[in-house]
Amino acid sequence: MINPTYLAQRTRSSVNWNDAQKRVLKSYREWVRAAPEIQQMYSLNMPVSAIRTKMRQEFERHRYVQQLKTETLNFWKQLTHVLKYFRAEEDPKAALPKNFIQGFLEGRN
After folding, report:
1. pTM of this structure
2. Could you tell me the CA-to-CA distances from 65 to 26, 56, 71, 74, 82 in Å, in that order?
3. What residues does each domain of the chain span?
């Protein structure tokens, strides 16, 4: 059973960049530690290492955010939302096209 509030955290704002960095690192560590629970909660058929790798990629994707207020987003995910993160690895055709023309020529919207 999926309990979306189990890993939820309160949204907070940092006063300065040093405080924000500490909070983000703490949040990252908590998410990485929770990977086995997430695997079990969502009944994911993939190794915990793949889940941790995807978490790392998502944190790295937002590494250079310049807005101090953008620190925490509280997402409540269902199984389909979680699987969306792994879709490109499972199905190479599911990856988004590099540009509009390529997608247009492939017949994608």
Report:
1. 0.66
2. 17, 15, 9, 17, 23
3. 17-65+77-106
